[in-house]
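Ops channel
N.P.: pipeline sanity check, posting one input/output pair.
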């Protein structure tokens, strides 16, 4: 079992003991500037501050310890948790922070509904505000996620390699056999595609695993581009076990209504370094 799981489980039992971000569970990403893909304005230089990010996607073992349940379609302690909405992840971050004696990063206001959420498919529409002074657990911003996924190396298509099979579980390799030809749901289903235990593929240069593939990872940000105003969905990154190669690229931006769930939708934790 991964060190991440062992330490997190210990922290849940010892409620007041804080998880040390200096441990192997998290990696300190030194901030800096990089050129980030932007669908609305074109590539732009973005600066991110120092932050800590989990080496692995959140596993079902950790989720179950915190949330007292496991919604995942594919069960396994070391598999990434999935079938979790953006709102579920916000609650998870706050609960974990409280269990470890940290001030929660998010303030959740359930009534009235968020006035800037315009997605008719989202029946939840909580308003979520942030406490920027908190070092509690949170979702990465889109800029933080891409900066971490790139690993400080330019011209990498996927996180850690230009060869997707070295670093990612995606539709071709996530099942019993390697699939050729065009993407079809029938082929994926018959091949029994699914998630895989975290940390099995090659990490990127900063030691982060599964930043391409396995499960899509929720980010904090609203999705926005030239054709779609913000307020209709939250950003996801990373691609997933049933997605195509293009979605696993470090520059790819996806969106999903915040209440949406899927067997390829999970998360990765971040903490501020201030």
């Amino acid at each position: 079992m991964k060190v991440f799981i062992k330490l997190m489980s210990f922290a849940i039992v010892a409620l007041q003991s804080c998880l040390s971000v200096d441990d192997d569970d998290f990696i300190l990403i030194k901030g800096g500037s990089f050129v980030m893909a932007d669908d609305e304005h074109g590539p732009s230089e973005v600066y991110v501050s120092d932050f800590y990010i989990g080496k692995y996607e959140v596993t079902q073992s950790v989720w179950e310890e915190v949330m007292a349940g496991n919604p995942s379609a594919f069960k396994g302690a070391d598999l990434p948790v999935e079938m979790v909405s953006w709102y579920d992840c916000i609650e998870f971050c706050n609960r974990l922070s409280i269990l470890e004696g940290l001030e929660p990063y998010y303030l959740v206001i359930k009534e009235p509904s968020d006035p800037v959420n315009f997605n008719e498919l989202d029946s939840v529409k909580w308003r979520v505000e942030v406490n920027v002074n908190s070092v509690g657990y949170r979702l990465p911003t889109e800029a933080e996620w891409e900066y971490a996924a790139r690993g400080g190396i330019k011209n990498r298509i996927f996180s850690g390699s230009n060869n997707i099979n070295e670093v990612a579980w995606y539709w071709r390799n996530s099942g019993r056999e390697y699939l050729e030809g065009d993407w079809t749901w029938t082929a994926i289903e018959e091949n029994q595609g699914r998630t895989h235990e975290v940390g099995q593929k090659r990490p990127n240069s900063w030691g982060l695993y599964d930043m391409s593939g396995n499960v899509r990872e929720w980010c904090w940000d609203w999705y926005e581009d030239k054709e779609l105003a913000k307020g209709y969905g939250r950003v996801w990154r990373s691609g997933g076990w049933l997605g195509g190669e293009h979605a696993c690229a470090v520059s790819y931006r996806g969106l999903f209504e915040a209440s949406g769930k899927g067997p390829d939708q999970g998360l990765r934790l971040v903490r501020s370094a201030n």
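N.P.: looks fine end to end. Residues 27 and 40 are 31 Å apart (CA to CA).
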